[in-house]
């Protein structure tokens, strides 16, 4: 099939490579022309997609990138994979989804299957995409992306894929397309079910992470190791799923998607109390980390050199969106510490560059990438570990 993917970020490029591997002819469309040039030169910006893979698909003419939306016309399948952030009031910002729908309306004259993979609340495909595209008899389906960047076990191929369509013909075509590169397809009765399933999955994670973050604080006050308790509880073969405490939540999904659910809940007059409370607990974790660091270092860190190790939101990825490291650094600075940070994957961030670990008085490990210099961390006089992966030091 001729496949066009609008948005060549984490989701769009991953999807492009998945479809190209299955023998489809893929065009990646993005408004960022620097990114387009970089992709056409065979340079990937996503962990898990190597330059060699990308260059191979380009050489075989199964992938090309373009900033010109006129290439969308003539596609069998058009996938939308654009950002769905929150606005300044923490409400859903669907401007990118609407812009993608408008690109299709303006450029696509021949019928295609249009699939939305961007995460959003139920009703988005129907009311924000299909309703904006008139004059051509397209098929519409929702297939929310579940990619977990940096996860080597679960990828596009083996993660089961949900599909809900506006018509049976749309479902059939979407199943044919995704079935060509995904092992397991699950049809649901409507796009709204697929859309809601995605935001419920991430809300489940957000609420459970908040619960375990609160539990870690209770446990510490009781003088018990929360991680040992979680490990013990996880020996129960049913009815328990282990989540680990940390410095908060980051990335494009967990801090954002639940607010999409809270927004629609509010629209239909149902309170989303768990989501709101979970947000409060997770957003307060950086302050808890700093409180513990102060307690662990004699009550004051004034004038101390503190290095924050790992500023991306999860290990082995370079993504700093919504990372709790930002608040941890700001709060440590408010306490009068001279704070630097170290991250081999991020290197440049917020106008600052990664500094060496060695030489600091204290280290606060927010995210631990494979290969980080543990020996250098241990040269710091005091170490606070938010990851539970460094034995014998203070932490959560
Ligand atoms: N990153 C993840 O782990 C992940 C996982 C599952 C779902 N999602 C969801 O997938 C969607 C995309 O996320 P992402 O992480 O790939 O975002 P991203 O920011 O990495 O990439 C989005 C790309 O879309 C481009 N874009 C924006 N508006 C456009 C337009 N009108 N036309 C063409 N290109 C446009 C941007 O330039 C950017 O390159 C979001 O809804 C997100 O919530 C993300």
Throw out a few tags for this protein:
about 400 residues, alpha/beta, 13 helices, 15 strands, binds nicotinamide-adenine-dinucleotide
Plain-language structure description:
With 396 residues, the protein is α/β, with parallel strands linked by helices. The chain contains 13 helices and 15 strands. The longest helix is centred in the middle third of the chain and has 32 residues. The termini are far apart.
Shape: globular
Gyration radius over CA:
23 Å
Major pleated sheet: 8 strands, mixed
Q: Which small-molecule species are bound to the chains here?
A: nicotinamide-adenine-dinucleotide
Give the helix/strand class.
alpha/beta
| β-strand number | 15
Give the low-confidence spans: none
SSE order, one letter for each helix or strand: EHEHHEEHEHEEHEHHHHHEHEEEEHEE
Strand content: 5-15%
End-to-end separation in angstroms reads 50 Å
Kindly summarize this structure in a few lines.
Helices cover 38% and strands 15% of the residues. The chain is an alpha/beta fold.
